[in-house]
Design a protein that fits this description.
Helix content is 72%, strand content 3%. The protein is mainly alpha-helical. It is flat.
Length: 465
């Protein structure tokens, strides 16, 4: 009976050697692929470094030109520099998206190859375990009687156990590698959120390029290159205080309001938070142009089911609304939507500004696994206190949204004042504190500060009228 054991062990031994050899071959094949990925990553980084250098050169050039006296040549040069800088920004965004996608793709390939290896070794280990059980069921007497050479019997047993042990160790090692790689992949997939933000910025960047090109063409068509004509156009374009008051200020996910009303609300927010009114308006104007996922989603389909839906239901109930009828942003392809109102707060962030408390943590922060129930606590409603009204604050109310935006910007450091502090606060508003200093988001901060400068000039005209 036991003679068959030797016949089985030898093929298994050969099979295991073949298995390990095949694995090494697969890994050897993947090595050039990894090298290619790394090589491409280095190329992307080198190109990014060069582009960032050119962007900085354009920024310095723009800053210098803007200090010069207003002339046709100067303004055309500024527009040309803006177009060049924005096109460089777009290319930089493309490269960042490529790099993120490449990293994620590399992890997916690694995990796939590890899965295949684990499956092969599972099958081998299962065969060995089954054969072990067969051997264990044979008594020593039967083994001795079935084997002409007793020493060969024990050598076979030792070889068999060694193979089994090697496979088990290999399996544990591969499983650990797979788990590690899966964790890295999950981290990288989290970065896919950055891709969507970058694509939103690209939409705005491309729009800006088209606007800048149209502005340049319009100027040159109107002036025929004549400085005197251009100076007359500049003078005629200067708006009066009355015209500024009559302008409409666009707000994201809500109706436009008269500029004078928007300014009054921004100035009220400035008085309560210390954040400059023109800067607040710059943020809101930038947000109104960003993204295509605004106000067309539903809370059930587009909102994070654990993090945001529970508190959103309480927000709606507190405000006396039907949650099914409230506008929220649609989720992008990479994650979740559910942002609310002109300032685009997600419910779990709004909770910290509007007085919603989680029963598990006793604060506006959710617990591990997003558990716990939510309730509204008026004393913790920061926006309610800031606007000075005896009602729960609403992310869809223009006054509350502008105040909340200013309050968040204040938390982000904008109340310190000055170009650098405001620009950094704007970047934190978009990308959070962790990502705020990343070069790929610089365009947002630059654009907000340009808008803030524009609104400051309008405010100055109103104040001097």
């Amino acid at each position: 009976m036991f003679v068959c054991k030797r016949i089985f062990i030898i093929p298994i031994f050969i099979f295991v050697i073949f298995l390990f050899g095949q694995t090494d071959f697969v890994l050897a094949q993947s090595a050039p692929v990894s090298q290619n990925v790394q090589s491409r990553r280095v190329e992307l980084q080198n190109e990014l470094t060069q582009i960032e250098k050119e962007i900085e050169e354009q920024r310095i050039f723009l800053e210098a030109k803007q200090q010069e006296r207003v002339t046709l040549e100067r303004d055309v040069a500024i527009i040309d520099a803006k177009i060049e800088k924005t096109q460089l920004d777009i290319r930089k965004t493309d490269l960042n998206i490529q790099a993120l996608s490449q990293d994620i793709g590399g992890k997916e390939k690694t995990i796939s190859s590890l899965d295949e290896k684990i499956n092969r070794e599972k099958q081998s280990l299962a065969q060995i375990i089954r054969r072990t059980n067969e051997i264990d069921s044979v008594s020593l007497v039967e083994a001795v009687l079935g084997n002409a050479n007793l020493s060969e019997f024990f050598e076979d047993i030792d070889s068999f156990d060694s193979i089994k042990l090697a496979l088990r160790e290999s399996f544990v090692e591969i499983a650990a590698t797979k788990n590690s790689t899966a964790t890295e992949k999950k981290t990288l997939e989290g970065k896919r959120g950055q891709e969507q933000e970058l694509r939103q910025i690209q939409v705005l960047q491309r729009k800006r390029v088209e606007e800048q090109k149209a502005e340049r063409k319009k100027i040159l068509d109107a002036t025929k290159g004549q400085e005197s004509i251009y100076q007359n156009i500049i003078s005629s374009k200067e708006k009066t205080a009355q015209e500024i008051r009559a302008e409409l200020f666009r707000l994201r996910d809500t109706a436009a309001i008269p500029f004078e009303m928007a300014l009054a609300l921004a100035e009220q927010a400035e008085a309560r938070t210390g954040v400059r009114a023109a800067f607040i308006l710059g943020i809101l104007a930038e947000e109104s142009n960003l993204g295509e996922n605004v106000g067309t989603g539903t809370w059930v389909a587009d909102m994070h089911p654990d993090r945001d839906q529970p508190v959103f239901a309480v927000i709606a109930s507190t405000l006396g609304f039907n949650p099914d009828e409230l506008p929220v942003s649609r989720k992008p392809w990479y994650g979740w939507g559910g942002a609310m109102g002109p300032a685009q707060f997600i419910p779990s962030t709004w909770a910290c500004f509007a007085g919603y408390v989680n029963s598990l943590t006793g604060s506006c922060r959710w617990g591990s696994g997003y558990t716990g129930t939510w309730s509204y606590v008026p004393e913790k409603d920061r926006i309610r206190k800031l606007v000075g009204k005896n009602r729960p604050s609403s992310p869809w109310d223009t006054e509350d949204a502008i105040m909340a935006s200013a309050d968040l910007l204040s938390d982000n450091g904008a109340a310190k004042g000055g170009y650098n502090a405001e620009r950094l606060a704007a970047l934190r508003y978009l990308a959070g504190w962790t990502n705020a200093t990343k070069p790929q988001y610089a365009f947002y901060g630059d654009d907000v500060m340009e808008l803030a400068s524009f609104y400051q000039k309008q405010i100055d005209i109103l104040k001097n009228s």
